[in-house]
Amino acid sequence: MAQSYFAEGISGEATFSMYVREYPPDRGYLVAAGVDDALDCLEALSFDADSIDYLRSTGIFTTDFLYSLRDFRFTGSVRAIPEGSLFFTDEPVLEITGPIIAAQLAETIVMNQVQYQTLLATKSARCVQAAQGRPIADFAARRTHGTEASLKMARASYMAGFGATSNVLAARRYGIPPTGTMAHSYVTSFDAEIDAFRAYSRMFPDRSILLLDTYDTVNGAHAAVKVAREMEADGQRLTGVRLDSGDFDALSRQVRRILDDAGLDYVRLVASGGLDEYRIESLVTAGAPIDMFGVGTRVGVSADAPSCDMVYKMVSYDVRPVMKLSEGKESLPGAKQVFRRFDRQGMMSGDVISLEAETGPPGEPLLAPAMRDGRRTTPPSSIGDARQRVADGLSWLPEEHRRLRQPNHFPVSISEDLERLESQIRGRLTAALSL
């Protein structure tokens, strides 16, 4: 496409809008994540000599076009909603305006960064909601789809409200508290389970969490009691025990009883293994005495919704509004703004998608300038600021839209000016098709 634009002399400015057409199953909101990474990618978008040599070797591209890529960089502008903001279907997460070749080449990289991280942040936020204040840690690194994905998961989940990660590189890179416990292999490397517990507690007297289910969870709990009492004799305290398999509800009650009967009410119960928001909600609702959750695979790959219908559509070219008419995939023309309204209690009450040039209906505008001439105009959001936006957004969103199952869709409408423009463009295109 870029080579064809170049050959045809098509170089006007285009605006592309990126948004989600339909919610993934059971979602009533989405958490914007990866926006800052997308902007970083745009700043770095260029072609080095090795890349141009490869393109030449394919035999697909002309010499003149390849020559033009030597000085290529992204020179457009971007408006985006801030990292960690809640958004809803049809609302632009970001809009890119620039020379059409540059704006078109941006599509894959920005969608790649934002779509995946948005899925993870949304899934993680739902887990935080289900846990009802109980801490959650990210244990997903082993089964995410690649090492880079594991870093994105750690960041997105912390932004959404998790308290720690087992991914030490992510902890270092993003300033997330690191956490971790022993594995079953650690226990089986000792002749006796209790020897493993003793060795671990000697090494980490202030943060030992003992894994109980390598052989038998109840027997493991009794062994943990012995180690905890030995630690008390040395002036120390066992931090916790972990359940990783079986009936978490029934086992947590048994283990809690064993610990309490031994006067170890301070020892915390951690559950991990196959958890997601649905299982967490079920355990919390049932009153299972679990103090903390470690979540991994099902959240790290967003197992029930591994993709969302995020799209990147041209909405204007050379000042001319454009749109798609494809059945079920229609797009709205023109660069846009989103205004968010709140009721008197401070709760979100509805969003209005308007044209960018409109003075706007009452409400808070969500899209803000983020890049001009290919350079960022604002620094990246700190992970703390993004984390606070998620927490604030969820506290302002009515419960009916936060439900984990069959939530009501948040009201999103379009302004009269946008509706009028859409009707005009649709009419013009329909008329042209009939000629």
From TrEMBL:
<feature type="region of interest" description="Disordered">
    <location>
        <begin position="355"/>
        <end position="386"/>
    </location>
</feature>
<dbReference type="InterPro" id="IPR007229">
    <property type="entry name" value="Nic_PRibTrfase-Fam"/>
</dbReference>
<dbReference type="Pfam" id="PF04095">
    <property type="entry name" value="NAPRTase"/>
</dbReference>
<dbReference type="InterPro" id="IPR041619">
    <property type="entry name" value="NAPRTase_C"/>
</dbReference>
<dbReference type="GO" id="GO:0004516">
    <property type="term" value="F:nicotinate phosphoribosyltransferase activity"/>
</dbReference>
<dbReference type="InterPro" id="IPR040727">
    <property type="entry name" value="NAPRTase_N"/>
</dbReference>
<dbReference type="InterPro" id="IPR036068">
    <property type="entry name" value="Nicotinate_pribotase-like_C"/>
</dbReference>
<keyword id="KW-0436">Ligase</keyword>
<comment type="similarity">
    <text>Belongs to the NAPRTase family.</text>
</comment>
<dbReference type="Pfam" id="PF17767">
    <property type="entry name" value="NAPRTase_N"/>
</dbReference>
<dbReference type="GO" id="GO:0016757">
    <property type="term" value="F:glycosyltransferase activity"/>
</dbReference>
<dbReference type="InterPro" id="IPR006405">
    <property type="entry name" value="Nic_PRibTrfase_pncB"/>
</dbReference>
<keyword id="KW-0808">Transferase</keyword>
<comment type="pathway">
    <text>Cofactor biosynthesis; NAD(+) biosynthesis; nicotinate D-ribonucleotide from nicotinate: step 1/1.</text>
</comment>
<dbReference type="GO" id="GO:0005829">
    <property type="term" value="C:cytosol"/>
</dbReference>
<dbReference type="InterPro" id="IPR041525">
    <property type="entry name" value="N/Namide_PRibTrfase"/>
</dbReference>
<protein>
    <recommendedName>
        <fullName>Nicotinate phosphoribosyltransferase</fullName>
        <ecNumber>6.3.4.21</ecNumber>
    </recommendedName>
</protein>
<dbReference type="GO" id="GO:0034355">
    <property type="term" value="P:NAD+ biosynthetic process via the salvage pathway"/>
</dbReference>
<keyword id="KW-0597">Phosphoprotein</keyword>
<dbReference type="InterPro" id="IPR013785">
    <property type="entry name" value="Aldolase_TIM"/>
</dbReference>
<feature type="domain" description="Nicotinate phosphoribosyltransferase C-terminal">
    <location>
        <begin position="364"/>
        <end position="421"/>
    </location>
</feature>
<keyword id="KW-0328">Glycosyltransferase</keyword>
<dbReference type="Pfam" id="PF17956">
    <property type="entry name" value="NAPRTase_C"/>
</dbReference>
<keyword id="KW-0662">Pyridine nucleotide biosynthesis</keyword>
<feature type="domain" description="Nicotinate/nicotinamide phosphoribosyltransferase">
    <location>
        <begin position="136"/>
        <end position="302"/>
    </location>
</feature>
<comment type="function">
    <text>Catalyzes the first step in the biosynthesis of NAD from nicotinic acid, the ATP-dependent synthesis of beta-nicotinate D-ribonucleotide from nicotinate and 5-phospho-D-ribose 1-phosphate. Helps prevent cellular oxidative stress via its role in NAD biosynthesis.</text>
</comment>
<feature type="domain" description="Nicotinate phosphoribosyltransferase N-terminal">
    <location>
        <begin position="1"/>
        <end position="114"/>
    </location>
</feature>
